[in-house]
């Protein structure tokens, strides 16, 4: 063989060996990569299992499930309690409101005032509990509208006693404030406002309110003055 042929032959052998080496390395790298991927998957599955196990153990150690059950029971109890309180508030408004017309069957002014006062008290109680809205508010307005009709209808000669009027005005002011925040049926609201305006004009309620405020201011000043005099006497 000539030198050129020998060199060419050696070159071909070298290239073939190089290609074989590249192929082997490629296969080796692929095998390693697959092994790494497989190992990673196993570790990932293992980590998920470990995390889930830790969650279960944590819930068990700190009683998370028991706490959730207790919170659920507390919420259910709270709802039942709220329903009971609402039912009681409605019962008070219904029972005291239904007695309002009885004021026309008795003569004692104090007793009349107490009947209206009990109804007003039921409204105040419901309002303080945050329940004087929706059905309860409508019922309160209906009762008070029916009661006002006794004194505002045409040709009537019936009059409110002073104790009745004072307690009724308190109820009317409360209901009016509630209706401003919690709207009710428009027609019912119009009836309420019309009868209230007539009643206020008939009994000059604005004047009575001013006089009552002046009386309260005078009493407060007299109370302060009396206390100051007592302190002076103690010092002497």
Using the alpha-carbon principal axes, give the shape.
elongated
Helix content: over 70%
Spell the H/E element sequence. Answer: HHHHHHH
- Largest sheet properties: none
Rounded to an integer in angstroms, the radius of gyration calculated over CA atoms is 44 Å
Oligomeric category: single chain
- The total count of strands amounts to 0
Low-confidence stretches: none
The chain-level structural class is mainly alpha
Classify the beta-strand content into a percent band: under 5%
Helix count, per DSSP?
7
Mean pLDDT: 79
C-alpha end-to-end distance: 146 Å
Give an overview of the whole structure.
This protein has 236 residues and is mostly helical. The protein is 85% helix and 0% strand. The chain has 7 helices and no strands. The protein has helices at residues 3-62, 64-97, 109-128, 134-152, 162-181, 186-202, 205-235. Helix 2 runs antiparallel to helix 3, helix 4 packs antiparallel against helix 5 and helix 4 packs across helix 6 (186-202). The longest helix is centred in the N-terminal third of the chain and has 60 residues, at 3-62. The relative contact order is 0.06.
């Amino acid at each position: 063989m000539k030198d050129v042929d020998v060199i060419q032959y050696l070159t071909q052998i070298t290239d073939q060996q190089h290609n074989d080496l590249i192929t082997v390395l490629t296969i080796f790298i692929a095998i390693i990569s697959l092994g790494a991927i497989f190992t990673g998957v196993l570790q990932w599955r293992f980590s998920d299992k470990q995390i889930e196990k830790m969650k279960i153990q944590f819930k068990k150690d700190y009683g998370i499930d028991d706490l959730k059950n207790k919170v659920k029971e507390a919420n259910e109890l709270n709802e039942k309690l709220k329903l009971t309180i609402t039912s009681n508030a409605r019962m008070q408004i219904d029972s005291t409101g239904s007695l309002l017309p009885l004021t026309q069957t008795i003569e004692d002014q104090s007793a009349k005032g107490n009947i209206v006062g009990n109804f007003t008290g039921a409204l105040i109680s419901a309002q303080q509990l945050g329940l004087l809205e929706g059905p309860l508010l409508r019922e309160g307005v209906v009762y008070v509208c029916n009661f006002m009709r006794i004194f505002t209808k045409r040709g009537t000669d019936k009059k409110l006693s002073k104790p009745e009027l004072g307690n009724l005005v308190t109820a009317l002011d409360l209901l009016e404030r509630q209706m401003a925040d919690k709207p009710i049926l428009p027609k019912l609201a119009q009836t309420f406002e019309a009868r209230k305006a007539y009643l206020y004009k008939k009994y000059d309620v604005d004047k009575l309110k001013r006089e009552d405020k002046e009386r309260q201011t005078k009493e407060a000043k007299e109370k302060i003055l009396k206390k100051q005099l007592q302190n002076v006497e103690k010092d002497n």
